[in-house]
Amino acid sequence: MSPAVSRIARLLGVAAIPLAILGVFFALPVVGMVSRGFWADGTFDPGAVLGVLGRPRVHRVLWFTLWSASLGTLLSLALGLPAAHVLYRRRFPGVSVLRAALLAPFVLPTVVVGVAFRQLVGESGPLGFLGIDGSPIAIIAGLVFFNASVVIRIVGGAWESLDPRAGEAAAALGAGPWQVLRTVTLPALRPSLVSAASVVFLFCATAFGVVLTLGGLAYSSVETEIYLLTANLLDLQAAAALSVLQLVVVTGLLLAAARARRTPDPALSRILARPRRLSSGDLPALGGTALLGLLVAGPILALVAGSLRHDDAWTLANYRALATTGEQQALIAPVTDALVTSLRTAFDATWMSLLLGLTVAVVVTRRSRSVSERRVRSVLDGVFMLPLGVSAVTLGFGFLITLDRPPLDLRDSPLLVPIAQALVALPLVVRTLVPVLAGVDDRLRQAAATLGAAPWRASLTVDLPVVARPLLAAAGFAFAVSLGEFGATSFLARDEHPTLPVVIFGLIGHPGPMNYGMALAASVVLASTTAAVMLAVERLHVPVGSF
Amino acid sequence: MTRACRLYSSALLTAALLALTACSLVGGGDSSAGEPDAEGQPTKVVLVTHESFALPDKLVKQFEQDTGLDLVIRASGDAGTLTNKLVLSAGNPQGDVAFGVDNTFASRALDNDVFAPYAAAMPAGADAYALPGDDDHRLAPVDNASVCVNVDTTWFDKQGLAPPKSLDDLTDPAYQDLFVLPGAATSSTGMAFLLATIAEYGDAWPDYWTRLMDNGAKLTAGWSDAYEVDFTQGGGKGDRPIVLSYDSSPAFTIGGDTSTTRALLDTCFRQVEYAGVLAGADNPDGAQQVIDWLLSPEVQQQLPTSMYVFPVDSSVTLPAEWAKYAVPPADPLTVDPAEIAKNRDEWLTTWSDVTSR
């Protein structure tokens, strides 16, 4: 075997475990569902599937999905960037609490956020005069509410360890703050910006609850359409057509993103710059952060206020009730039990996604010796993003029909939920780690090897210190994704132990003022638990400044 | 640097240990449960159902004690998701018995041979809820609830306006911009209302919907969005006093010594939920025992409090608030389940066209 081929073989060997898991828990179910549509009534009929793509309704749905997701992504970036700057490059009292709190919206169940949003902007709400209830503006606002935190976290993580000296040098040579941002900072941040943008786009394009609840049923996206076709009408042919469409669009996006991410020289010096105090130059960034803060705080305040009301009085009754099974025993288990189940599931999902994510990130960032090797690495990079771009409904039904026989009789496995959640979190983990690992100068590893270090030792001394903080950030991310995950979880069979978002969904779907209050209170508990976990992760001080 | 390494390895070690012990779900399950016993008899029975299924632990324990079987409950999605999952896994089902397929989806399940026949002994009055066309007893009715338009009587009293009574009244300009309802495409409650209008108006139902929308009816995604946000008596204190909900809902809006809402009994569509033994079940005997259990007086009595539905057993005593405020319609609107299965797609498409204009 030639050295180049054997390098690629070794590379695929390392990637084999994550690839196998992706194959069983993603490719197999999706292919299973899609082929059911192509083989309608036992005969292969691709014409009928392609015919679906010609329907005007499909064009409308595709167009809406594309423009709403693009706009949602752009606005999340526009509002998330200033916040990332303020929260990761500046120091002021309470900054770490604020950082942790900004990730809270990310885990809130959409059904509850929908209710909270609509209480503000609905006909009788305090912002009802805006008249945006049921409009695309409300949908976009909802998308930004959920996704700005993703931008802050991914970009902030890279920004935090960006060497400030290049910018300072430019400033010393007379560049204004905007010029420094445009010519020095943003180019250096490009890999993480593109990473954040592609993840957020996938989240926006597959948003389900936000589009239905805030759009007042007037708008359909590819995701809501697949849900209707699969879960309600059982029109697998049309669902397969849309799933294929979804895959094609997502693949195209990932190719474009990979191209945009490529930088001529990814090696950047990484140091943990000491955050500076706020100054008057930060006013524009502070303005952007404040705007985002308002957008996030509004619905959350509505939520908290609602959770403290019962029988037209301020009370903690809703919170006290969380330890019971609901006013009318609507729940099998108290909400507190569900929180424990959620935390345990999240723990499993986190270590799974970290293990897989770290392997993938290492594989795709090692320096390639040949063009074909680089191609293999970038294809691998993209493949692990795919689960985010595919409908949870397709995946959920696919699990049922493909993992149903030995040796893969896994559809009842208690591990199915954490695995599904780990797959959803995996792209976030990879996208958080890759920009940082790609920035490590390969010469450092070579130097370590020259000095006699074994490959694992070289990795431990060169990569680990650089990746330590981003790894913590990724762990927090994965944990939060798992805590809040509802789409895939609700489609998988659950045992007697539902997770918290599932319980909240059950509570808010039943009459009775106490159930409503408890749903809001449980959401506040879920959000604050997430914020507390994030804060704890931030507090784990990793001594990285020493290299 | 070495300090960092040591710190790291200890952190990793801790994480690994935690994963192996209390924090994880892995290895937490009792893997021996459900294996056949020495005589090869199955020791567990699996009930597949939807997300709204809920019965107190006490009743489940009692069943397990009485039958010696371990009852495993697998719940996910809504009635539509449940039915479609059963259809897709027909022949190699995920469990032994299913509960929660309703009369709007039942025909699809029967057409695809999801269920095996079982003629359970029916409690008093349950025959009235039997699925039309199910001649070999594949589905046993377990509970029912009617989707009805509800009004906030306190709001109408205050305005000095008589509340509407019929479907026709909802298109009266006197009630302009007062009605909120979940949509038929995204909510089973909304679907039931669409079926009510089809039963009432026949082929002219799209005209009715045009008039309804012209009169300012507001559509939401789900029941909770309509009831808890826009309805005047919901949790969010909205501004619309007419909402689509259930015949039992007035039992949950009691203020002082009376209910503040009332269901309009001439606007109701009745949903019946069924249970059936799954064709190809590993434990068909256990499945039959689960159906008998669901029809037993103990479970039937618990249905209103746990699942917000009426029992099919007419001899069961209802909870006090239900007996007083939850009045089921005497003569609900109905559509033949076979018709629903045949036309669901076309009706929903037409409905989407009419309402999104």
Automatic annotation (TrEMBL), chain A:
Family: Belongs to the binding-protein-dependent transport system permease family.
Protein's name in the database: Iron ABC transporter permease
Keywords, alphabetical: Cell inner membrane, Cell membrane, Membrane, Transmembrane, Transmembrane helix, Transport
Originating species: Nocardioides agariphilus
A GO BP annotation: transmembrane transport
Membrane topology per record: Multi-pass membrane protein
Broad class of the protein's primary localization: membrane
Annotated compartments: Cell inner membrane; Cell membrane
Domain ABC transmembrane type-1: 62-255, 339-537
Entry superkingdom: Bacteria
PANTHER family, sorted: INNER MEMBRANE ABC TRANSPORTER PERMEASE PROTEIN YDCV
One cellular component (GO) term of this entry: plasma membrane
TM regions (residue ranges): 64-88, 100-117, 137-155, 199-219, 239-260, 281-305, 349-366, 378-403, 415-438, 471-493, 513-537
UniProtKB/TrEMBL annotation, chain B:
Key words of the record: Signal
Keyword Cell membrane: no
Signal peptide per UniProt: 1-24
Highest taxon of the lineage: Bacteria
Protein's GO biological process: thiamine transport
GO cellular component: outer membrane-bounded periplasmic space
Ranges in coiled-coil conformation: none
InterPro entries: SBP, ThiB-like
Pfam families the UniProt entry points to: SBP_bac_8
GO molecular function terms attached to this record: thiamine binding; thiamine pyrophosphate binding
SUPFAM superfamilies: Periplasmic binding protein-like II
Entries under NCBIfam families matching the protein: sfuA
Stated name of the protein: Thiamine ABC transporter substrate-binding protein
